Task: inverse folding
C-alpha cells in the first residue's frame, strides 16, 4: 500500500495516541493538515479497514482497527518511514546499535529530539528481559565512552510497560507519543494492541 507523507503522519499519530478519541477537526489540527485533507485520508483508511468510524454525540471519531491484521503492517511501515528529527539523532541511531542485542525495543525521547547536540543528555527508553540488564548496562557504558553525552536511561520489562500503558502512566505515554523509535516496532505494536483490545473488551 502506497502512502503519502500526510497519510503516514496521520496513521502514526493514530497509533501513538491510540487511547484518544478525536474528531476529524482535532486530528487535522494535531498533525497540521486541513480538515478536508484529514477527512479524505480517513475515508481511504476506513475503506481499507485500517480505521473504525464511530459517532459520539455530534462528533465523528476515528481510531485504529487493531482487529485487522493489515493494520499492523501499514502502521509499522508508516513508523519505519519516519526520519530522524535532526543530524545528531541520526548519528546516535547508528551508534546505539551496539545495545540492540540487550534491548528488545528502544526509543529516544526528550530534549535531544529538538535540541540535538545542544541537549544536556540523551534520554533513552529500553525494553528488556530482566536477565539482560547487566549486558545493557555494560553496553551503555561502552556507548558513553565514545559519546559526548550521558544517557538518562528508562528501563522497562514487557510486564512493566504493559502495566504502565494500562494505568496511563504519563511518562510512558509521552515517550510513546513523541519519541523516535530506533527498533522494536513489532513488540511496541503488540503491546499497544493488547492494551487497546483490553480497553474495548
Result:
Amino acid at each position: 500500500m502506497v502512502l503519502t507523507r500526510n497519510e503516514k503522519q496521520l496513521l502514526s499519530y493514530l497509533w501513538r495516541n491510540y487511547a484518544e478519541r478525536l474528531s476529524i477537526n482535532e486530528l487535522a489540527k494535531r498533525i497540521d493538515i486541513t480538515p478536508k485533507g484529514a477527512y479524505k485520508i480517513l475515508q481511504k483508511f476506513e475503506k481499507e479497514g485500517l480505521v473504525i468510524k464511530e459517532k459520539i454525540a455530534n462528533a465523528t471519531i476515528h481510531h485504529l482497527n487493531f482487529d485487522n491484521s493489515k493494520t499492523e503492517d501499514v502502521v509499522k511501515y508508516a513508523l519505519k518511514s519516519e526520519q530522524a528529527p535532526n543530524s545528531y539523532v541520526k548519528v546516535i541511531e547508528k551508534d546505539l546499535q551496539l545495545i540492540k542485542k540487550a534491548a528488545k525495543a528502544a526509543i529516544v525521547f526528550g530534549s535531544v529530539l529538538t535540541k540535538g547536540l545542544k541537549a544536556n543528555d540523551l534520554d533513552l527508553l529500553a525494553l528488556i528481559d530482566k536477565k539482560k540488564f547487566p549486558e545493557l548496562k555494560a553496553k551503555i557504558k561502552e556507548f558513553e565512552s565514545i559519546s559526548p553525552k550521558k544517557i538518562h536511561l528508562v528501563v522497562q520489562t514487557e510486564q512493566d510497560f504493559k502495566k504502565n500503558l494500562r494505568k496511563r502512566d504519563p511518562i510512558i505515554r509521552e515517550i510513546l507519543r513523541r519519541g523516535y523509535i530506533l527498533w522494536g516496532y513489532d513488540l511496541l505494536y503488540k503491546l499497544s494492541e493488547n492494551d487497546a483490545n483490553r480497553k474495548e473488551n
